[in-house]
Amino acid sequence: MFSKEKLEYSQLPLPDRQNLDDSEMLLRAQKYFKTMSTRHTVRDYTTQPVAHKVIEACVAAAGTAPSGANHQPWHFVAISDPTIKKQIRSAAEEEERRFYAGGASDEWIKALEPIGTNAHKPHLEDAPWLIVVFAQRYGKFDDGTRYKNYYVPESVGIATGILLTALHVAGLATLTHTPNPMKFLGNLLNRPDSEKATMIITAGHPKPDATIPAVAKIKKPLNEILTKL
Known about the structure:
four-stranded antiparallel sheet, alpha+beta, NADH Oxidase
């Protein structure tokens, strides 16, 4: 991505600018909050296809995220191939069975009870798309030598949040899945050693009888998540 000979600072005029009054800003913020309040983590999907162009547009939005030194240390693998999805489900469920059979602490398992999760992950096959998020620990100059990436977890976390938002705005349901360990994903998807899988995002349309845990609608009130000084 980068050339060692072209690492220099230059400036551009701010290309996009908004100058809204307080009422318009508040209106937009409230509208956005209302939109995001309808986002739910869904585990029951139809097999209805979703055009790859939709997924591409959402990933492109994720790619606009800020990142440490603008190194953009992320890669997204979008999977619709049924064979690969089946392999991911099989490997993920194997890890999950170990997790629920003693790999996790009693406290962790207890915390998950209101969510209703278990080792059975049919959504990994049913949904039309899986998007695996990879964090790039280092990059390479055009001559093949390495350079360090900075604030990788923070940068990838921001990009992932934008991706989830884009998928929701596009009308799709999502589920974030983090089997641990996830090394099998790098091997299965033929990603380089510089990358580490951080998350599987399931994306598609929910079944007509899809449900969510009641506890998922309980959100902390604003006064618990915001301090104004």
